[in-house]
Amino acid sequence: MQKYINFSTNSGPLVFKLLDTGFANFWLEHFLNIQKNYSLSPRKRHWPYVKPIDDNTQQIIDKVISVSNQINTIDYLVPMPETIDRALLERLDIETQYFLNRLHRYLVIATEERNRWILDEPAQFDWIPWENSDIHHLFNLLNQTIHQLEEYVITPHRTSFNHFLSSIEVTPIASQYDDCTVYEDDVDKEIPDSFLPDLKLYGHDVWIKKDILGKDFITAFADHDDPNKPDVRSPPMISGGIEIDIDDSREKFFNSNQFKSWLGKQPTDVQGSYPIGDIVVKPDNIAGITYLKLERIDGIEPTL
Question: Rounded to the nearest 5°, which phi and psi values hold at 124?
Fold first, then answer.
């Protein structure tokens, strides 16, 4: 039976038709459990974008250095492979971005492998138990602080595609911490590999929220990162969050010559994400949504 997901918003009703795919039903089951326990927070999102330097910039640089120092002085680890250079961070240019790419990748590898900073090198420290909450917190805090600083870093891709992609991102309010987002244990759910055929580049309105350790291909492009690295990938998990496209910029982005040149080949669905539906009733001002709540799921299409 066809399903229509009905939301109320501050701008009027929003209804989307759930895709008839195994993945969409997998997402729906998880979403229904999440929305029982956590509120949903929508916000307009532009990606990528560049912020002008402001009063927060130095504070974020200070935080990158401080959290890195905390990690590097933990006695059961070895320091990360590179020293944090304040002067390099303050440049906020492509060289800054290249360094942040490497720093970010050290954290991703250590989080996943639990005993090294570099994937193709031998173990550098004893295996870190998954229950180690200090590491979990500090790695995520530094990871997300890096992403905050990247909002100020000027790269050719970020500049030429500034505010190119427009959407409404809906996030469950379910973090374990106040200073970074680490979901409660029941929120993250791994996507089985059997759903990989449901990946798409574009062609639908409603997608899963991007939840990924590493980077999706859009972010890696903005960051001038290497698309062949193993942590540049489609989203491997869901949180129940969604992303609602408000124009056709996703299709234009993946078809752009700049993206194809960076990727080194014609993009395929493997570089995309997971769609879950198409809008059939749109609020008058979808870009202005600040409140969203699930009302019901219907089996018939609403009449306008």
Answer: -110, -15
